[in-house]
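Quick one, tokens below:
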């Protein structure tokens, strides 16, 4: 595992220490790694949504009703 040295603002350091003191995490390193993992997962979701929006925007206009569009979206949710 790569070793890094980072600095935190006082409020962030106090929050990190509180999480470790509350035994939510065994160390600040474990907590920071978990936060990074969560951010990476969120970015994957954001990228997926953005790709779906780009695809929709590039597909053109539709004469379908809102109800029809919603039904189509629900049927394609796992595409």
């Amino acid at each position: 595992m790569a070793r890094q040295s980072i600095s935190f603002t006082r409020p962030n350091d106090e929050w990190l220490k509180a999480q470790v003191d509350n035994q939510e995490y065994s160390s600040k390193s474990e907590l920071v790694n978990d936060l990074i993992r969560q951010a990476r997962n969120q970015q994957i979701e954001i990228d997926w949504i953005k790709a779906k929006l780009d695809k929709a925007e590039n597909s053109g206009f539709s004469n379908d009703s809102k109800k029809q569009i919603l039904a189509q979206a629900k049927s394609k949710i796992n595409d």
